Amino acid sequence: MNISKVQDDLQAIVTAGVVKSHEELKDRVFTKMGGRADILAAPATYEEIQKIVTYASEQRIPLTVLGNGSNVIIRDGGVRGIVLQTSDLTGMEVRDGLLYAECGAKIIDVSRYALDQELAGLEFACGIPGTVGGALYMNAGAYGGEVKDVLHSAVVLNKAGELITLQGDQMQWGYRKSIFSSGEYVVLEARFALKPGEAAAIKSVMDELTFLRESKQPLEYPSCGSVFKRPPGRFAGQLIQESGLQGTRIGGAEVSRKHAGFIVNADHATASDYIGLIQHVRETVMDKFGVELETEVEIIGEE
After folding, report:
1. For residue 303, how many C-alpha atoms fall within 13 Å in the half-sphere facing its CB?
2. Is 176 marked active-site?
3. Fewer CB within a 10 Å sphere, N or C end of the chain?
4. Looking at the DSSP assignment, which residues form a beta bridge with residue 249?
C-alpha cells in the first residue's frame, strides 16, 4: 500500500473529517496503549464513513473500525491499512418514540441523555466508557442489563458500503458478542426502545450503579475494563484473586489491587506488557483451578 497516495485519496473524499498518516493510536484510545496506524481517518459524517468503507473495499485495503478503544488492546506494532475512528460522530435525539444515537457517541453519554429525556432502560450503561458502535459490537452490559435488552434497530454499512437496517432480533446476540463481531458490518446509528420514566427514579438507579462502580473498580487508571469473560458458574475476578495475582506486574501493566478482574495501565504499559500479563494470569488460573479464562477484550494489530 502506498501510504502517501491513500492519504491523498482519502483527504479528497473526507473533507469535514481528519485524515493522518502514521498516527499514534495510544493517544487516541482509552487504554493509552498501541502502535501507529498506517492511515487514521476520523470522519465527521455518515457520508464520509460510507466513502471510506467503499474506498477500502474497492482498493482492497484492510479496514479497522475503532471507537473509544475502551475494550481493545492495540499491539505495539500498530495497525496496517486504514483505521476508521468514529468518535467524532456523537449526535443524539429522540424521534418517533425511539432514542437515536450516532455510532461514536459514548454509551455513558447516551444513558445520561436518556435521563434528561426521562427515558428508562439504559441505566446499566451509566459507567460504560465505550461508544455506541462498540457497545453493539460486544453486546455491552453491566449490573444485569445488556444492549440487546433495549436495542430496537441499527443502521449499518456492509463491506461494499451499502446501507442496511438491521432489527434487534437480527443481531445474533451472545455473551459479549453480536453479528458485528464478524467484521462484516460497520455501525452508523443505533435506535434504542426505552420506556417513559420519572427522572428522579432513573437518576437514583444511575447514582447507585455509579457508586458501586467507583467503589469497586480501579477507575483511576487507564484499562480495558473487565479483561475476562465470566467462566460458567464462576467469577473470573475471584479466581484471579484466589490465585494470589493481585498486584502482579509485567512492565507497566498490573493486576488491579482493587478489582482482580481488571488489568490496569499503571505506568506507561506497552501492549506487550498487557498481553504478557493476561497470558500469565490465564496460565496461573489454569494451573490452580483447571479453569480456562477467555478474554473479553479484543486484541488487534501487529506484533
Report:
1. 1
2. yes
3. C
4. 254
pLDDT tens digits, residue range 148-190? 999 999 999 998 889 999 999 999 999 889 999 888 899 999 9
Mean pLDDT score, 250-261: 95
**Cβ 87 vs Cβ 67: under 8 Å:** yes
Consecutive H or E run containing 277? helix 271-289
The answer to whether residue 253 scores a pLDDT higher than 90 is yes
Q: From the candidates 75, 176, 191, 282, give the one annotated as an active-site residue.
A: 176
Residue 200, all three cell numbers: 428522579
Q: Which of 111, 226, 243, 256 is catalytic?
A: 226
Say how far apart CA 72 and CA 295 lie, in whole Å: 11
Task: List Cβ neighbours of 146 (8 Å cut-off, separation of 6 or more).
Answer: 124, 139, 140, 173
**C-alpha closest to that of 127 among 15, 231, 30, 245:** 30
Smallest Cα–Cα separation from 154: which of 141, 131, 171, 175? 171
C-alpha 274/C-alpha 109 separation (Å) is 28
Quick one: pLDDT at residue 159?
85
Burial environment of residue 70 by CB neighbours within 10 A (0 to 12, 13 to 18, 19 or more): buried
Instruction: Look over the chain and give the mean of its residue pLDDT values, rounded to a whole number.
Output: 94
Query: Percentages helix, strand, coil for the chain, rounded to the nearest 5?
Result: 35, 30, 40
Question: What phi and psi, each to the nearest 5 degrees, are found at residue 227?
Answer: -75, -40
Asked whether residue 146 carries a pLDDT value surpassing 90, the answer given is: yes
139-148: average pLDDT: 92
The per-residue DSSP string of 112-152 comes to HHHHHTTEES-GGGTT--SBHHHHHHTT-EETTEEGGGTEE
Is 296 annotated as catalytic?
Answer: yes
